[in-house]
Design goal:
mainly alpha; 2 domains; rod-shaped
């Protein structure tokens, strides 16, 4: 009886260790995905034209001497951000339809 109980306990411990390893791998994958989403170079590499437009509009707005020119730069910046948002939304919708 004691040998059977000892064997069952060892099997339960091994199963628990395997479950913990699986949970740890899953958490590591989630953390890696979260960190990858926070990296700014990822967005720049995926959307280089949009990033360049935003950078140019922001530089134009901040470097302008007159208020009217700065306002035009801010409008350009807003337009670039709206285009970026629409582009990301269309990619998101396309991604959802691919998964279905």
């Amino acid at each position: 009886m004691a040998i059977a109980d000892d064997l069952e306990t060892k099997i339960e411990i091994e199963d628990a260790k395997e479950d913990l390893r699986d949970a740890l791998h899953e958490m590591n994958n989630r953390v890696e995905e979260g960190v990858a989403k926070l990296r700014p170079d990822r967005g720049i590499r995926q959307h280089p034209v949009t990033s360049a437009c935003i950078a140019g509009a922001l530089g134009f707005a901040l470097g302008a001497d007159s208020g009217e020119v700065a306002f035009i730069g801010l409008l350009l910046l807003g337009g670039a951000m709206v285009l970026n948002r629409e582009h990301l939304a269309s990619e998101h919708r396309a991604g959802k339809s691919d998964e279905s």
